C-alpha cells in the first residue's frame, strides 16, 4: 500500500516497529524491515560503540530501510548522533527531549526525522522543529509515557487536527484491527512495540517475553511520573514502588529506589522480581511468541481483511 508514511520511509507497509530499550537490537530491526515494515534499533540501552555494532550488523542483514530511535534524555546523545550520521543511517526517531536539538543536524545529513510525543502541544513543537513525521503515543503504551494520560483514541485525532505533517499512532496497537482503527481516526501509519517484544528476534530476556505472554488485563500500571512515566508489569519492584508512594516518598527517594540499570536487570537480565518490566497495556492481547515476519504478515492480513469487512457496517 502507498501513503505518506510508506513514501516517506520507502517501505511496503506503514507499520513501524518501536525502538524499545533492551528489546530492539539489529536482529529485530532487520527482521521487521525485511518483512516490509520499518525496523528500528533502540539506542536507549546502548553505549555508542554498541550502537555502532548494531547498525553495522543491521546494514549487513537487510538492504531495506531501517532506523534508530534515540531518547534525547540519555547520556552520550552527541556521540550516538555522530555514529548515526557517520554510518549513513537515513531514518531517526527521537523521543524524550527537545526535537530542536538535533533535527536540523540530522536533516542536513540526509536523514528523515520523526519525533515521539504524548500531547498536541509537543506535536506542534515537533512540527515547528522541522521533523518529517510525528508519533503520537497514547497512555496505553509501555516505556516512557506522557504524564497527561491521554489515550490513543483521543490523542491521535487531536494531533491530526493540529498538524499537517505525517502522523504515526502508537500505544495499544498490536493487531490489524487496531492499525485500521488508528488510521480511520487520523493516523497515516502505526508504531507497534509490545507485540514485537514477544518475538524470537527481540533481544530481551526469554523470561520477560514469557511474562508478556502471560500478562492479563490490569497487569500493567503507569507509574513513576515524578521521574519519567513508565508502564510496568506488576512484580515485587512495582509493589515496592507503590509502598514508597503510600508512605509519601519524595522524588529523590523514588530515584534511589529505582537505582541504576533497573530496566536492564528485568528486561535484559531476566530478574522478574527486582527488575523494571516495561510493557504496554496491549500485552493482555499477546498470547504467543512469534517471529517478527509472522507478526508483520498477520497484522497486515488482518488489516486488509477488516478493511474489506467494514463496508458492510
Structure description:
- With 313 residues, the protein is α/β, with parallel strands linked by helices.
- It is built from 14 helices and eleven strands.
- It has two domains: 4-203 and 286-312, Aldolase class I (TIM Barrel), CATH 3.20.20; 206-282, no CATH class.
- The chain is 42% helix and 15% strand.
- It has an eight-stranded parallel β-sheet with strand order 1-9-8-6-5-4-3-2. A three-stranded antiparallel β-sheet has the order 7-11-10, with no helix packed on it.
- The model has no long low-confidence stretch (mean pLDDT 95).
Topology:
Elements (H helix, E strand, L loop, with lengths): L3 H6 L5 E3 L8 H9 L4 E4 L5 H14 L4 E6 L5 H10 L4 E5 L7 H6 L3 E6 L2 H9 L4 E5 L5 E2 L7 H11 L4 E4 L5 H9 L4 E4 L1 H4 L8 H9 L5 E4 L6 E4 L2 H11 L4 H8 L3 H7 L23 H18 L4
Helix pairs in contact: 2-3, 3-4, 8-14, 11-12
Order of helices and strands: HEHEHEHEHEHEEHEHEHHEEHHHH
Question: Would you identify the CATH H-level superfamily of the largest domain?
Answer: Aldolase class I
β-sheet strand percentage: 15-25%
Number of domains: 2
Rg, nearest Å = 18 Å
Mean pLDDT: 95
Helix content: 40-55%
- Write down the CATH class of the largest domain: Alpha Beta
Q: Given the helix and strand composition, which structural class is it?
A: alpha/beta
Looking at the structure, the CATH topology of the largest domain is: TIM Barrel
Biggest sheet, spatial arrangement of strands: 1-9-8-6-5-4-3-2
The total strand number stands at 11
